[in-house]
Fold this sequence. Notes:
CATH architecture of the largest domain: 3-Layer(aba) Sandwich
Helix content: 40-55%
Radius of gyration: 20 Å
CATH class of the largest domain: Alpha Beta
Structural class: alpha/beta
Distance between the termini: 44 Å
Largest sheet: 6 strands, mixed
CATH superfamily of the largest domain: Periplasmic binding protein-like II
Strand order of the largest sheet: 2-1-3-12-4-13
Number of strands: 13
Amino acid sequence: MKTANTSFECLLRRTLKRMAILSVSALTLSASAAELIKIDGSSTVYPITEAMAEEFQIAEKGKTRVTVGVSGTGGGFKKFCRGETQIANASRPIKEKERAKCREKGIRFVEIPVAIDALAVLINPKNTWVDHLTIDELKTLYAPESQGKVMNWNQVRSSFPDRPLKLFGAGVDSGTYDYFTKAVVGKEHSSRGDFTASEDDNLLVQGIAKDENAIGFFGYAYYHENKDKLKAVSIVYQGNKAVAPSPETAKSGQYQPLSRPIFIYVSLNKPTDALKRFVQFYLDPKHAKDYVSEVGYVPLPKVAYEKALNNFENEKTGSAFAGGSKIGISIEELLIAKTID
């Protein structure tokens, strides 16, 4: 289990790197302005892209500045398709209506899977009654028809105590919310509305950590960084044994249906040399292995990053997920997926 000390060490390491970036940037900017790369979108993908951005800026010695915002996958695509950013972080594939907005503005892009995430269901460590949940029980917790009706734990399973439920979850503009509702409820963007939703996963961590009756869902990286505050729930799918979320079970395909690919989308509209260098840096298999693993996600095979870089350099546009998220897609299926413009 990750301790508070290791979390502190990770935070300290990142803080020292940010200080190094600021120091180098200040020296360089006195002579010339740095090139700017603007990124926004998914809070789930944020830890990977933030780590990449920090390391890249150090390697660039102040020549390039990278900003990474967090407005959720949907919010990130709005900015991306208006031409306000060069990269969109996304925890689900781009939707057809978002592609249409990009087409209206003449935004051409390359879709790049960057990792596999084990979308986690979390409870308070003092919760002693839940050791696993089935997908049907998760549906009972979050389905639209449960609003105002399923309010106590014993309504989810009769052996659970008669205690009030406190529900948390990813914000409704997030790709994590879209994927979770499709995988669990059966329909994307369909859920009860009386749960605490936020695009800021750290707020969800705090809410669950403070309430013994709480349960919520968000990307694995935020559980990975807060294992001392949260407890992950094992999931039973299609009558199989309960499986806990982890990089190993996500990679093997055992953790279903909540394992999913996560993405960056890169604009091909006047790509600068700095953007090209950043994408090359991001898709370097060694960097991917180091920084994707560091934040708790599953790196893709080397061939996947090589294929993605080739797609970017050859301006292969479009999406391999024109019909939306594909539930339970494996790494092997991801590798052979064909993009449709």
